[in-house]
Specification:
This protein has 10 helices and 15 strands. The chain has 432 residues and is of the alpha+beta class.
Length: 432
């Protein structure tokens, strides 16, 4: 299951660094981080035989009748938790989930992304992704009142988050997750962090880790970090931009082309990839924007995509092509602007990369820049309908995850539609 060299390194590190708890991490279908701890003595056995746990307790995993699951740690993801004491330390390792028959469990989102990655590799592509996540800091977990009025990239004495961003960056880097930059985003109390690009599965692991670290560091300062896409009506929403490119096995960027071939330096392969994303975006929107609140962000502000278009300068495009730096071919990439930070990163990357690969497979032509484009779903209900009729999404996610998402998200939409809100009481309670 794993390379012997990696396993030896982990076992030696555990002994040398006095690690007393090893946390096994994995994601449920909705993208919540799950964890249980084992002692270092059990780790060697975990690599060989997996560690059993009750899958029926995890959303979207298994019914009570078939509840037994095995977690196999992936030694390449081993990292110490820097916020725990160094004496009797704590480490974490991401796991792949298997059935008792040692078959990969098809409800495991990480496995789902690995499958897409493997398919890409077989075609000679290595999908690379760099995420940029936005979020808000508040001083409690109940009432989202902004703590500052700073704006995009502002550096002011009233930016209370300055030290918090610094500490978060240092913690992530101690866990070998390089941060490109962190900054104050456009909204009051809104912040952002951009992680360095890496291959797709590591990127999703890094997003899961970063979400926890951001919350963890905020909590130690008596603050609360929220990834809710639109917590404040009058403030901009939070995105999770995904910068994607395909490299070959030698690390050459397959998206780059000279300007003579394409005005935006896009190779034919890149053009097909973008066309695939534009074509299938209405079908994958449920995965990249999975909550009722996600759709409150999709308003025509010029910053948020509402249609499946591409462009260079245009930030309301679904796919933006960042300006090309002369001589830096490796930096040629696309910026997918629709996802938000409530998405399960494994499923969001699986769905969007698969859409791009499908565009290559079908040889789809790239439409004109900023041309019309299909409208993206406006509500969670609409997103479920488009997702449910998608053959590609069922194929990429597998029946287990696909059916679970349709069932859960339809129930969530029904619950929202039948809930009576403060807005309704304010407008209708005393009228008529």
């Amino acid at each position: 299951m794993s390379s012997e060299k990696d396993i030896d390194f982990v076992l030696r590190t555990v002994e040398k660094r006095d690690i007393r708890f090893v946390r096994l991490w994995f994601s449920d279908v909705l993208g919540n981080l799950k964890s249980f701890a084992i002692s270092p003595e059990e780790l060697e056995e975990a690599f060989e035989e997996g560690i059993g746990f009750d899958g029926s307790a995890v959303d979207g995993f298994a019914s009570l009748e078939e509840s037994d699951m095995l977690a196999f740690p992936d030694p390449s993801t081993f990292a110490l938790l820097p916020w725990r004491p160094s004496e009797s330390g704590v480490a974490r390792v991401f796991c792949d989930i298997y059935t008792p028959a040692r078959e990969p469990f098809e409800g495991d989102p990480r496995r789902c992304l690995k499958n897409v990655f493997t398919r890409a590799e077989e075609q000679g592509f290595v999908p690379n992704v760099g995420p940029k996540m936005e979020y808000f800091y508040f001083d409690n977990d109940l009432d989202p009142v902004p703590l500052d009025n700073a704006g995009y990239f502002d550096l002011t004495p009233m930016d209370t988050a300055n030290d918090l961003r610094r500490q978060t960056t240092l913690t992530l880097e101690k866990m070998s997750i390089p941060v490109q930059y962190s900054y104050h985003a456009a909204g009051p109390s809104q912040n952002g962090v951009e992680l360095r690009f890496t291959e797709a599965v590591s990127c999703a692991d890094n997003i899961m880790t970063a979400r926890l670290v951001i919350k963890q560091e905020a909590s130690t300062q008596g603050m609360y970090a929220s990834f809710m896409p639109k917590p404040i009506t009058t403030a901009p929403g939070s995105a999770m931009f995904l910068y994607q490119s395909l490299l070959d096995h030698d690390g050459e960027n397959l998206f780059w082309a000279p300007k003579e071939e394409h005005e935006a330096h896009l190779s034919e392969l890149a053009q097909h990839y973008i066309a695939g994303i534009l074509k299938y975006a209405p079908e994958f929107t449920l995965v990249t924007n999975p909550t009722v609140n996600s759709y409150k962000r999709f308003i025509s502000t010029g910053e948020v995509p509402t249609h499946a278009t591409w462009g260079r300068k245009n930030r309301s495009a679904l796919v933006r092509i960042p300006a090309h730096k002369p001589g830096k071919h490796i930096a040629t990439r696309i910026e997918l602007r629709s996802p938000d930070p409530t998405a399960n990163p494994y499923l969001a990357l699986a769905a969007t990369i698969a859409a791009g690969l499908k565009g290559i497979e079908e040889g789809l032509p790239l439409p004109e820049e900023a041309a019309g484009g299909e409208r993206l779903p406006h509500t969670l209900g609409e997103a479920v309908d488009r997702f449910e009729s998608s053959e590609l999404m069922r194929e990429v996610l597998g029946d287990h995850i696909f059916d679970y998402l349709v069932r859960e998200k339809r129930a969530e939409w029904y619950e929202y539609c039948t809930a009576v809100t403060d807005w309704e009481r304010e407008h209708y309670y005393g009228g008529f």
